[in-house]
Specification:
357 residues; twelve-stranded mixed β-sheet; three-stranded antiparallel β-sheet; 8 helices; 28% helix; globular; binds zinc ion
Length: 357
């Protein structure tokens, strides 16, 4: 009987796994350090907002279609629908307390449409909106945000597997949520439409991740490389659980993306003493493209430092430019991934063989 139960579990558990939606918690709009947010239901959708034991139903084109949320010390002040509610946190869902379509805005700045379960609280002097989002929707959204228009379909599929692997392997990157919506984790904005190439790339690779020794890897990617990719330890970064390899990249080898930048002597010394972490610190301060890659030569000129380099990004993992080139040469997404991530497997999260944390 015991073996019969074991067989039943092995056969049936992947089916159970398929019915469990995988959710990721993504902190959004944090770069704006919001003090006030406006929340409204998407047209045709209804939004149930629960705060301090009270409920509000937001519906577009009704007298109660939106609320504003402000921070007051460590609590929220919620205004709308004829009420003012003070609460520690707010949760917004559809009527059945599941994922809803909604629009979240920073008044006077920007407005974005999302799908998921929204929670807002106050922390560190700002509002912290966090969306629990279906993993596949998060994958499609990051593929859309992290790739160039016109990227070939097989390269988009490779990117989808890389994004899903990262989101499956790398929980808890932030204190109040798992991932931010910036390149620090992976860029994420509005979800793409169901007919978009990004959505189709996610759908065509649904559930597939890169694994190493049976676990998904926090797969990294770079816009272009210097002709071969790098391992993190080459850059003084901590070695990842997956031992990245330096892989040849044909298109960047023949014709790398070249760039020139001018830096102050002070910034240049940060680069020379702190390496990749210094480059990232400069990019956080001066803009993400201030020093496009870690592969350059430097010379002094009139009190400034001139950098001449090749490649864009840290150079680790999937080279997006190389992936697009391989796709144009008829490689499929599996061939592209195995080229940039040697010794990995491409496995389904639903296979029952992939160990999650
Ligand atoms: Zn992050
Ligand atoms: Zn490359």
């Amino acid at each position: 009987m015991r073996w019969l139960c074991a067989v039943f579990f092995l056969v049936v558990s992947p089916l159970f796994a398929q019915t469990q939606p995988r959710m990721v918690r993504i902190g959004v709009l944090g770069i704006f350090h919001p003090q006030e947010l406006a929340l409204r239901a998407d047209p045709g959708a209804q939004l149930l907002v629960v705060a301090a034991g009270q409920q509000l139903f937001l519906q577009s084109r009704s007298a109660c279609d939106s609320i504003t949320v402000r921070r007051s010390e460590t609590s929220l002040v919620i205004d709308g629908c004829g009420k003012t509610i003070r609460a520690e946190r707010l949760k917004a869902t559809d009527r059945d307390q599941k994922a809803a379509d909604f629009v979240l805005a920073i008044p006077g700045k920007l407005s974005r449409r999302y799908e998921g379960i929204l929670e807002i609280k106050a922390a560190a002097g700002e509002l912290v909106p966090v969306i629990s989002m279906d993993l596949e929707l998060a994958v499609a959204s990051t593929v859309q945000a992290e790739t160039n228009p016109g990227t070939p379909a097989e390269a988009l599929k490779a990117q989808a597997v890389v994004s899903r692997s990262y989101l499956s392997a790398n929980f808890g990157r932030h204190k109040n949520f798992d991932f931010c919506d910036l390149t620090h984790c992976q860029a994420l904005r509005e979800p793409p439409g169901a007919n978009s190439p990004a959505w189709q790339a996610a759908a065509a690779t649904q559930g597939l991740v890169l694994t190493y020794e049976g676990k998904p890897i926090a797969a990294m990617f770079t816009r272009s490389c210097r002709g071969h990719t790098r391992a993190p330890q080459e850059l003084g970064l901590r070695q990842a659980e997956y031992p990245y390899f330096s892989v040849a990249c044909e298109v960047c080898g023949k014709d790398p993306v070249r760039w020139t930048r001018r830096l102050t002597g002070e910034d240049a010394s940060v680069l020379s003493t702190k390496g990749e972490s210094g480059r990232l610190a400069i990019c956080r301060r001066l803009g993400w493209n201030a020093v496009p890659s870690n592969n350059f030569v430097a010379r002094e000129e009139n009190g400034e430092v001139i950098l001449e380099g090749t490649g864009q990004g840290h150079g680790i993992g999937l080279c997006q430019r190389g992936a697009a080139f391989l796709a144009s040469q008829s490689s499929d997404f599996r061939e592209i991934l195995i080229h940039y991530f040697p010794k990995t497997k491409i496995e389904s999260l639903d296979s029952g063989t992939v160990a999650l944390r």
